[in-house]
Amino acid sequence: MSPAYFLKIGPPVNQSHETSEKDLAYTFLQRMMMLDYRARYIPVRQDNPDASRSKSVPVFNNDDFEALFSTKVDSNKSKSHIHPMDVQMALFHCSDSFLKQNLTTKLSQCQYALPLLVPDPVTMDIECPLWTFRQITKTWKKTKIKGDSNAITMKTMPICKAETPMVFFFRLGSRPVSKSQLMNTLINDRHSTFFHRNCPGSTKSRLLMDGVAEIAWYCPAGKPNDSFTDCIAFCNLHGDALSFEKQREILTEKSSVNVVLVPTLEKGQKSTTVIEDLYKSPTALIILIADDDSDAVQVKNGKYKMGVKDRNQSDVSQELKGIIEEILSGPHTSFLLESMAEVSGVTVDEDHVVYQKGKAAALKTVKMLQGMEISKLKDTFLPCQANLWHEWCRINKELYHLKGNIEKEKSEKQQQLNKIRQNQCKASFSELMKSFTESLLSLPSKEKEYFLKWTQILIDALSTHEIKQTELEQISKTLQSATFGLEHIFREMGQIYEAHRAVQAESRHTEWVKYPELAADLMISGHPVELMDGDAVHVPLIWIASLLDEVIKKLGDQRVFVLSVLGVQSSGKSTMLNAMFGLQFAVSAGRCTKGAFMQLLKVSEEINKDYKFDYFLVVDTEGLRACDTTLHHDNELATFVVGLGNMTLINMSGENPAEMQDVLQIVVQAFMRMKKVKLSPSCVFVHQNITDTGAAEKNMNERRCLQEKLDQMAQLAAKQESCDAECFNDVIAFDVQTDVKYFAQLLEGSPPMAPPNPGYSESVQELKNIILSKAKQSAGIKLSHFRIKIHDLWNALINEQFVFSFKNSLEIAVYRKLEVEYGNWTWALRSNMLTIENELHNKIENGDIDKIERSDIVKEMRKTFEKIKKDMSKYFEDDRDKDMLVQWRGRFDNKIKEFQEELVRGVQRKLDEVMQQKKACKKLDDKKPEFENKLLQKSKELAHQLKDSAKDDNKLQKQFDTVWSDWVKDLIADTKPIEDINLEEDQETILQDIGFEQNIINDSKSSGKYKNMSEYDDYTGYIVHKQQKGQGIVAQVFSLIEDHISGPMEYEDQELIRSLIISIDKESLDAVKSKPVATRGYSSAYLQEVAKNVQDTVTEFESNQKYDFKKEFTVDLLLYIFDRAGSWLSQSHKKYKMNNDAHTYLESKKTQYYIIFRSLCNGNSSAVVFGEMICEKLKVSIVEAVCNKTAIDLAGEMRCTFPAFNGNRLNLEKHLLKSLAEKEDFDAFITYIQNPRKQVEAFIKEKVNTYMFTEYKEKAQNILRNNVYGMQNFVCQALFDATNKVKTQRGNTEMWAKEFSSFLKDKLTLESVSCQNFRDINNFDFLKDEIKRGLESIKEEMNQLSLDKMKEFRLRPDQILIDQLCNCCWETCPFCSAVCTNTVKNHSPEDHNVPFHRPSAVSGGHYKDSDEMSVEFCTTKVASDIRFYPNLRLDPIPFKKYRKAGPPYKNWRITPDESKLKYWTWFVCRFQKEMEKHYHFKFTGSGQIPREWKTHTKEDAIESLDEMCKL
User: Fold this and answer.
1) Are 1439 and 1428 in contact (CB under 8 A)?
2) Measured CA distances, 452 to 213, 260, 439, 486, 1086 (Å)
3) Which of 329, 613, 635, 1212 is deepest in the core (most CB within 10 A)?
């Protein structure tokens, strides 16, 4: 067995009083690992029920008094159970060297004796398991009497290195007296260090203990009641020493005092020769005689004998202590464990090759450390983590406290950081690190384990202390700073890796690339890994991320349950974790945990099915309230580990109310922060060192007090964090009855000889069961998510405004993925709605319906909507991130319903307009059959006259043109024509009526600059400063002079005016487009209404500003609005005229009637002419239907396959910015900066045109052809069905036309056909064939149709995509004007956010009262110590607390970003001159561009967009 077998979370340890034989070994080891010394005394439950019953006392029921003397039961008939020490030794023999070492260490912690010489059960070869002692360190206080006072010296050293006297106990012959029990009275009379015959579970028969020599050390506490004044080793040889000559000889040779127990002291015994040799030996000898009751007597110098028969054991013990103390006060030999390696005839485990190779490599590494002061080791051999790393951490934290010219300062500091990294690269690979990493890379796995363990052992041995009590306080701080361990070497590896990763310079050393893999192997094998450097108080994010990436590569992206531990320094956190899980967090060598360490524990196969994760990841931390830490550091640490954990153990020690209050305040504040950033860990409080933990009433009082304190702390933390909380339960789900565990004190007595308290072990197991029970309810977290969470938490913490700056990257990534799905769901609804709209539109045009109810539209799309709801449910319930998605489910359910409702309202509005238009056209529509009949009749008459000229097309065309005008005049003689509109004349009239001078109007019109009014870079020329009431003439003159000589307006004012223009533009266009121009025609009143609203809005705006607008502003603004509305008004009126003006309608039919006329001239039959008429009407309808269908299909194809359109809003923004960079068109950039939606729409149109006419032209044409083919088949089927029905029912031409139109009504509009002149048609098959021939001709013609034709119809692919992709949020950052990239519009309560923040200069930002551009990113500002004025009425607010400025600031999530988006730094450098010219400011002084920015290339800029989208 190996430690790996136990280094996993298994079933709960059996805490009952009995266990079965088959579980005995496992239970013993588990309880020993939990420091339960009662593991030796586990009663065995007989597996055989009969055997169990046989344990009852036999009953004879004999009344005869003589039976009292004669009745007996043979004890051999009762079944004997396994001897407890056989269990221990069986485990020892079956364990590998590392588990033996762990077992021996735990035995030592339980104050039990340890195997020193172990005979092999088969060969009887004697082994000294020296390796098993290597982890054990002992601390004691030596007392030396000097005059009237005692000098106390404290020693701490590995027990293998300790030279101490050794007292060797053995017996010769039978065992009338317990030697082991007597030894226990010398060491600790309240604890059985050596197992003896009177211990529970002891039996006469034992198989594996005879011949075993055990050793234990007495360590004095420096107190008057110490048994001995110095450390003494006591060795005990089990069994009759006469039978184990080899062991006896070795140990008598090594001992300082030999104590031999004999049944009797007589000559001629087997033992006489042995005693004689010992008597002659120079080593002190004490003979204990079992059958003698005399007191001790010194026979000669160093030789004693004493009787033990019928004597009080306490008296014997005291007498023996006095003799040993007297012997050891004089000259004596010392015992050194390591000297056992030199004894012949004994096999030492460390002599095996694998041990030696590991040790040799470790010695090679550690040898170079020997002889140096520990405090200088780090600087000499680990330079990367010393001053360089500490300086790097300091500067990195300063990035979040910038002042003054923050962007320049930030750039300089980042250069300093890079310089430090370069220096780290130069200093890396010291001889120590070369040797250490070379061994790690080259040694096989087993040898590597020994190498690491040896290295740790040898390094620990360097810090052996011998300190006088009086010096302790003065040098304790020095000791803490001078610690040096294996963790520091791994820390150096991390720094070497980070430095080389950051610099990416060529180096002859390439081993650093493999460092994360090496560390990952160690973490997987159960080694603790440093998460936070406790000296620098910093998390090496790059190193940790790479290490966890390697763990993921090796294990897969497993789910882990993260258990964090917080508590006061030296409160026993690490000891508790080690006992609970068998971990290896450092608790020895006088070192407390510094920083934070993490260790991986696998969930065993036996219980894996009960959990939703595969591993526990335990995070142990340094203590709160340590003497060398600050409250800020404690808050930082607590927030970090609480945020990381799925559960946090809060460990408190003792009953000091003040100490407890401090810890609770820190912890509650950490939980409050988690609540505010939507993280929800659970917690369990552990209160250690509580006396009388079993008293129910005391426990209840303790819990009530704790609840009160927690509630008080919650209220206090709520004030500090600006959060509503009346009690701790408002912060986190907590039950004081189940989530608090009281622990007994760790030790059962006073150190250093006290064993662990069994109650402590029970508490550990109960706590473990609580943790496992709660963990069952958690899904844990993926390792990849844990890695990201570390990054997010730490970056937020170093900004010192955790709640403001925390960016939950996991949540952001999941939300972005949800946005993509939301886009897919809304597109499915939109594309279905477009199809429904087409069908209903056709039915209205065909006259089949004259009213559309909302319910009709909802019913049509019900099937698609139900499918979307199912897809949504499946996504929210089955996605791997469902636990995080649940917070948005209700909101997105509502959003989809709102989106559907929006689509329904939009389509209903459009269809209502179509119906209104249909009604408006009724007068003309009623006349169309009359027009058609008359034109056909006139065509027939003219054709009859010109039948001889049928072959001369020119003559026919000329003749037709001559009569056409007369025909039209004749037909519309009584109809008033609709006049064209003159918008320019109306606009000028409106401006004059308002009161603007003609010269101002003329100047504005002639300059034409108003057309780009929303994109002006400077509006200063439009304003005049307001004059205060009561100003004198001088002040007024100065005010006028200021208007002429002052520089440009403030950036904020400029943006305010731009926003006003854009807002008025949108409102005005919406108002104009709401007018029924297409159904009722244009009226100048529409523009008059717009003009009045513009005036009112401008006046209201002026009332809140410190300036007024000149008349030129309002004139230019109105002309700008008129110009923008003019094209829509003209098109709408043209449509109205087309649909309602008889002359226009007839002129549109001229070509159609010429074709009919020519056909009649050629003598074609009525069926042929009628067929040609039908085909002409079908052609118009088919072209429109095919183009509309193709528009939907093309939009769908691009939405699914085109990279810019197939993601979320952020993805679209990224591609737009890439496109702008590739073209390097400054004007396009300015449009994007000042009116992002306009540029996005232009980008979509451009990409659609590129797709259709360049890159994917053939694909687009194929979509068009497929729709032509589909439509032809549809018409042919309708033709076939209509003809068959008419033939079956013997119908006429009118019936045929009606049936044919009916079959087409869903997909095509067919203008009414007058059949008055075609009643003679009776061969409908012939008519069908004629139309089919015409359809073939239409198909051939349409296959050559240009995609440009789509622009003439109702649906266009670019507009469909604009409606879909631009239906999102368009709010802009209040600092830099970057547009929010949330896919969902009105996405409250989700904050606005954008990863592409930019310098203020990009949108014209400059310093107040200066012409210097502002180059700061707002992501830098919110990490700085500078302030801003939200408006003139508020005091300045720190950028770090920008949300406190209220709307719009509080609705934005702007997180500090230590990196800069190279895209915008490249833009500033590339277009510096253009920006200076455009904005009339300069990049000088405080606005000077940092030098580093000028190194960024266009390629860097584009690449940075991808990087930012991944975050």
Assistant:
1) yes
2) 29, 42, 9, 8, 86
3) 1212
Yes or no: say if 1388 and 1450 are a contact pair by the CB < 8 Å rule. no
**For residues 1166-1190, average pLDDT:** 87
Count of beta carbons in the 10 Å neighbourhood of residue 468:
11
What are 606-653's pLDDT values in tens digits?
888 999 999 999 998 876 765 556 677 777 888 888 889 899 888 887
1252 DSSP assignment: I
User: Cα angle vertex 757, ends 753, 761, to 5°?
Assistant: 130
Tokens at residue 93, please?
Answer: 């023999």
The CA-atom distances, in angstroms, between 608 and each of 26, 605, 960, 1068 are 19, 5, 92, 66
Give the separation between CA 1327 and CA 1345, rounded to whole angstroms.
Answer: 27
Pairing of strands 114-119, 213-218: antiparallel
The amino acid present at 91, given as its one-letter code, is L
Q: Which residues pair with 145 in a beta bridge?
A: 150
Contact, 126 vs 133, CB < 8 A?
A: no
Q: From residue 213, how far is each of 38, 172, 200, 302, 1090 by CA, in Å?
A: 22, 14, 21, 24, 106
The two three-digit tokens of residue 1137, written as one number:
């005229």
Tell me how far CA of residue 735 lies from CA of 564, 739, 922, in angstroms: 19, 6, 76
> What's CA 1505's distance to the chain center, in Å?
20
H-assigned helices in 748-881: 758-775, 783-798, 802-805, 809-845, 854-860, 862-878
Looking at the DSSP bridge assignments, the partners of residue 258 are 168, 285
Tokens at 109, concatenated: 């912690």
Name the pTM for this structure: 0.79
Compute the distance between CA of residue 932 and CA of residue 17 in angstroms, rounded to an integer: 108
d(CA 757, CA 689): 10
Would the pLDDT of 1147 be above 90?
Answer: no
3-state class (DSSP) for residue 78: coil
CA distance 1175 to 1335: 7
pLDDT for the residue 507: 66
| CA 1469 – CA 1501 distance, rounded (Å) | 11
For every residue of 565-609, which 3-state class applies, written as one string? EEEECCCCHHHHHHHHHCCCCCCCCCCCCCEEEEEEEEECCCCHH
Alpha helices in 1235-1256 (DSSP H): 1236-1250
Torsion of CA 665, 671, 675, 677, to 10 degrees: 100
Which of 13, 65, 9 lies closest to 38 in space, CA to CA? 13
- Distance, CA of 672 to CA of 54 (rounded, Å): 61
- Is 1429 in a helix, a strand, or coil? coil
The tokens describing 1279, both together, are: 């033709």
| pLDDT single digits (tens) 462-475 | 765 554 445 544 44
Return the half-sphere exposure (C-beta side, CA atoms, 13 A cut-off) of residue 648: 28
Cα angle 789, 731, 817; round to 5:
35
Question: 3-class SS at 712?
Answer: helix
Amino acid at 706: L
Average pLDDT over residues 562-589: 76
C-alpha to C-alpha distance for 121 and 208, rounded to whole angstroms: 7
Two tokens at 1369? 């949020």
Quick one: tokens of 37?
């010394």
In order, the DSSP letters of 232-300 are EEEEEEEEETTT-HHHHHHHHHH-SEEEEEES---TTSTTHHHHHHHHHSSSEEEEEETT-----EEEE
Sign of the C-alpha dihedral computed for residues 952, 954, 959 and 960 taken in this order:
positive
Tell me the C-alpha to C-alpha distance, in Å, between residue 310 and each of 314, 470, 981: 12, 46, 134
Q: How many residues does the chain have?
A: 1511
DSSP letter (8 states) at residue 618: E
Unique residue bearing structure tokens 């360490």: 597
Closest by CA to 665, choosing from 597, 601, 712, is: 712
Q: Give percent of the chain with pLDDT exceeding 70.
A: 89
